Amino acid sequence: MARSRKSPIQTPVLAPVPDEQIKRELSELWSSEMLSSDSATKSQLKIWKALFRGISPKKLYETLQKEAGGNSTVNLELLYNKTDADEPEMQCTVFIDPKDAEKPIEKHAVKYTFAVPDDGASHDDIRLDSVRVRDSDQQGKRLLAGSLSKMVGMIKEQGTKNITTVAIQVGAYAWAKYGFRPADKEAWEELKEDIKMRIENGNPSTICMPYSWNTSGYAITDKAKKAIQKVLRSDEPADIIHLTELDEVVGKNGDHNITVGKALLLDAQWEGILPLDEKDRGYRQFLTYTGTAQEKDKKR
Question: How far apart are the C-alpha atoms of 221 and 225, rounded to whole Å?
Fold first, then answer.
């Protein structure tokens, strides 16, 4: 007798949260100074539903605060951004700071924004923007990774398909580590051309970073060169992750080590996407890098 095949487990999509519950919980966060906004209640409701249709304000706040821990404070800001007249945006910014931080806070420990355009459409994608970690210290990086893991997990549960971003400066390397990849093959080809220039502009055995104080470039081994060329021959944008795996230290920038992967990607610019699909290797990399995969293993 043939065995029946098990159907893959489907992640249930969260039902939309009722408007009255959203308004009540936003008001409670506002009164406890955990939420700020320059918009009236009606606009707050519109922003929240555009971004987090299946997540209640209380659940989102309590989840992020629990992840941040007792020594940190989470604050949210809802904003209707009209700076771009062609495409105004609805935004939610998350701030994480030490519990005893003096106010006003000029430079937050962790800050990131999720946004969608105000075009009246229902969005399968949400854009991640304006990510900042104060001093790039390890604690800040852990806070960011943990907070993003919880936020992205909730966004996925409500049915959002993709997180998009523009990877620039440090983010051109960091977002690849998180599992993001160039949004399409055209973006991947453009990034590969940038990488080729970094190698071809100098000695073939060196990487010359743009805007670097090290004008002579960073020397690389034959093994590294072969690994780089293998990735550059690939037509698959997800193969960007292999560049971040080139972790041989080739120099320093102040107190920070420069690896082969960083020399190839830092200060590049590329449109990025993270598909929220358990089968996608970029999303699996996100789960691993943020520690979510280990959490799931422990619960099994």
Answer: 6
The β-bridge relationship of strands 249-253 and 162-168 is: unpaired
Residues belonging to the chain: 300
Burial of 177 (0-12, 13-18, 19+ CB in 10 A): buried
- What one-character DSSP code corresponds to residue 218? E
Residue 244: pLDDT band with limits 50, 70, 90: very high
pLDDT number for residue 270: 97
Q: What's the pLDDT tens digit per position in 270-282?
A: 999 999 999 999 9
Instruction: With beta carbons less than 8 A apart as the criterion, state whether 136 and 112 touch.
Output: no
- Across the range 98-112, mean pLDDT stands at 83
Structural domain range at position 211: 189-266
Cα separation, 148 vs 150, in Å, equals 5
- Are residues 154 and 57 both part of a single domain? yes
pTM of the predicted model as reported, rounded to 2 decimal places: 0.88
Q: What's residue 215's pLDDT?
A: 65
User: β-strands 249-253, 256-259: how paired?
Assistant: antiparallel
Among 190, 201, 260, 259, smallest CA distance to 225 is for 260
Domain count for the chain:
2
